[in-house]
């Protein structure tokens, strides 16, 4: 299947089966904003749980917080986001559409010079040099030289290249302007002392947080990849300044291992050192994943040194120095920053399969890792009569508190299996006539479609063994 069809298929599967809906769907949608449906939120919560536990349970020196989205506007002055959190933009005068010129050039080069690596490399080198020197004129000339047209109007009627700030400003009658936070990290920096004191933390230690961030992105039509409202899973690790390189390498290594544990497939991952660093960073590496539209950033690892704490010390007039290891210093910070929606997209994409069965039929199956599946097991009666629904309902009620289960009797058994395949349920249990005689049910595996009989009293143990998170956290703890 062509890549663009795969992506369209993924978006439609996510909507039909209740994973992702366009926001404000009944009003025609809202660009780059999405809602999570009933199965989407379960999958997303399972990813969060896994990340949260792998940070705050497996590392005894990492604790979590949940800071507010609205913060004092001085925070954004101190952090540099008001002055520096800018992106380049260019407009096409005919279509009135807005683009990021660097992305326009990169996508053009990817599409047209993939068979000419020398030319591709030359153009990307020039792009990187112009970005570094902030030479917008050269970027504009490059767009002209490459004859890049607007994909909508098909014209080259471009404006000048300029900067715009990516934060959403909220107008407030009585207060200074407020901003929706563009990263969760600042809530962590501002609570550095609160957490350190209340939890008696000693350097090195980390603070983890999962929460919403907002950016005024130019629409890229990449589904969950680039949204205006999205979630980040960030961890700031506070260290001795002279240990910067050591911890930077440590966290790069740990985070890559975490991703490989999640997906298993090394060839879908790349590490890329930043050639264009964020205003706060002294080192930066992107962990890139092979999305349907190519390798793209899924997580950023940065050394922010003492940039943020120093700025907050200056703006808030509060001391950020610590006295530890017999000296007074402002700690350095290594940050790991993962986009929750991006990893959701990567897992959804890598799990969605079309399989040809022996009888020639196609089945669509979401081969999620079992511990992430939205529903852990489904319980069906073979037919809707002769007391079978009552037995199946009793099994569901007995185990529903321990496991996320589903009871269904709305269709024929074949269709019920297909539906569970499509939402990624790893096992199904069917109550049939033999159940009445032997207290056993048919158990069917999603991936192999193999079936066997199991006793009702073993159902909960089997679900736990097949889908439990703990077993996987334990395996991960041996790797990191
Ligand atoms: N605190 C550092 C920071 O925010 P970043 O590289 O700008 O760094 C970190 O963002 C991660 O957040 C990215 O690797 C990506 O996974 C996610 N992210 C950033 N912008 C996003 C967007 N518009 N939509 C979805 N995820 C986004």
Strand order of the largest sheet: 3-9-10-16-13-12-11
- CATH topology group of the domain at 3-71 and 202-348: BirA Bifunctional Protein, domain 2
CATH superfamily of the domain at 3-71 and 202-348: Bira Bifunctional Protein, Domain 2
Structural class: alpha+beta
The major sheet is characterized as: 7 strands, mixed
Question: Beta-strand percentage?
Answer: 25-35%
Oligomer: single chain
CATH architecture of the domain at 3-71 and 202-348: 2-Layer Sandwich
Q: What count of helical segments does DSSP give?
A: 17
User: How confident is the prediction overall: mean pLDDT?
Assistant: 95
CATH class of the domain at 3-71 and 202-348: Alpha Beta
How many individual β-strands? 23
The low-confidence parts are none
Shape category? globular
Radius of gyration: 26 Å
| Small ligands present | glycyl-adenosine-5'-phosphate
User: What distance lies between the first and last C-alpha atoms, to the nearest angstrom?
Assistant: 37 Å
Helix content range: 25-40%
Describe this entry's structure for a reader:
With 480 residues, the chain is α+β, with helices and mostly antiparallel strands. Among the domains are: 3-71 and 202-348, 2-Layer Sandwich (BirA Bifunctional Protein, domain 2); 360-474, Anticodon-binding domain (Rossmann fold). Helix content is 39%, strand content 25%. The chain has 17 helices and 23 strands. The protein has helices at 3-16, 38-56, 74-78, 81-84, 101-112, 117-133, 136-145, 185-190, 192-198, 244-263, 307-316, 340-351, 388-399, 413-423, 433-438, 459-467, 469-479, and strands at residues 20-22, 34-36, 62-64, 86-91, 98-99, 162-165, 168-170, 178-180, 205-214, 229-239, 269-273, 283-291, 294-305, 322-324, 327-329, 332-339, 352-356, 362-366, 377-381, 405-407, 427-431, 440-445, 451-455. The strands form seven sheets. Strands 3-9-10-16-13-12-11 form a seven-stranded mixed beta sheet. The protein has a five-stranded mixed beta sheet with strand order 20-19-21-22-23, with helices on both faces. The chain has a three-stranded antiparallel beta sheet with strand order 5-4-6. It binds glycyl-adenosine-5'-phosphate (GAP).
């Amino acid at each position: 299947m062509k890549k663009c069809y795969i992506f369209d298929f993924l978006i439609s599967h996510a909507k039909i089966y209740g994973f992702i809906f366009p926001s404000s769907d009944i009003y025609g949608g809202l660009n780059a904003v999405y809602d999570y449906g009933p199965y989407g939120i379960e999958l997303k919560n399972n990813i969060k749980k896994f990340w949260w536990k792998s940070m705050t349970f497996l590392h005894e020196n990492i604790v979590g917080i949940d800071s507010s989205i609205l913060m004092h506007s001085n925070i954004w002055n101190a952090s540099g986001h008001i002055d520096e959190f800018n992106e380049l933009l260019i407009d096409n005068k005919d279509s009135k559409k807005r683009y990021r010129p660097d992305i326009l050039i990169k996508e053009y080069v990817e599409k047209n010079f993939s068979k000419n690596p020398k030319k591709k490399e030359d153009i990307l080198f020039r792009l990187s040099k112009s970005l570094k020197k902030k030479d917008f004129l050269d970027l504009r000339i490059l767009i002209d030289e490459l004859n890049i047209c607007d994909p909508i109007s098909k014209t080259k009627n471009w404006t000048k290249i300029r900067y715009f700030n990516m934060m959403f400003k909220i107008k407030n009658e009585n207060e200074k302007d407020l901003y929706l936070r563009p990263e969760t990290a600042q809530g962590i920096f501002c609570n550095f002392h609160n957490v350190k004191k209340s939890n008696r933390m000693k350097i090195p230690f980390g603070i983890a947080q999962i929460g919403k961030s907002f950016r005024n992105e130019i629409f890229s039509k990449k589904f969950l990849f680039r949204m205006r409202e999205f979630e980040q899973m960030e961890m700031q690790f506070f260290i001795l300044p002279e240990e910067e390189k050591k911890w930077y390498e440590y966290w790069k290594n740990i985070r890559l291992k975490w991703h490989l544990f999640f997906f298993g497939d090394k060839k879908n991952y790349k590490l890329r050192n930043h050639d264009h660093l964020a205003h706060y960073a002294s080192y930066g590496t992107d962990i890139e994943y092979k999305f349907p539209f190519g390798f793209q950033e899924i997580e950023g690892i940065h050394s922010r040194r003492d940039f943020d704490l120093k700025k907050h010390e200056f703006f808030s007039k509060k001391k950020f120095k610590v006295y530890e290891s017999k000296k007074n210093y402002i700690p350095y910070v290594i940050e790991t920053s993962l986009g929750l929606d991006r990893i959701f997209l990567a897992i959804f994409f890598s799990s969605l399969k079309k399989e040809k069965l022996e009888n020639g039929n196609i089945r669509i199956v979401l081969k999620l890792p079992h511990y992430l599946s939205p529903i852990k097991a489904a319980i069906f009666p073979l037919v809707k009569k002769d007391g079978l629904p009552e037995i199946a309902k009793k099994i569901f009620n007995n185990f529903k508190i321990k496991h996320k289960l589903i009871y269904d009797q709305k269709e024929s058994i074949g269709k019920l299996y297909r539906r569970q395949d499509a939402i990624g349920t790893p096992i199904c249990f069917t109550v049939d006539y033999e159940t009445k005689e032997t207290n056993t049910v048919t158990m069917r595996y999603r991936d192999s479609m193999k079936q066997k009989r199991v006793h009702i009293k073993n159902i909960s143990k089997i679900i736990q063994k097949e889908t439990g998170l703990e077993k996987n956290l334990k395996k991960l703890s041996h790797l990191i």
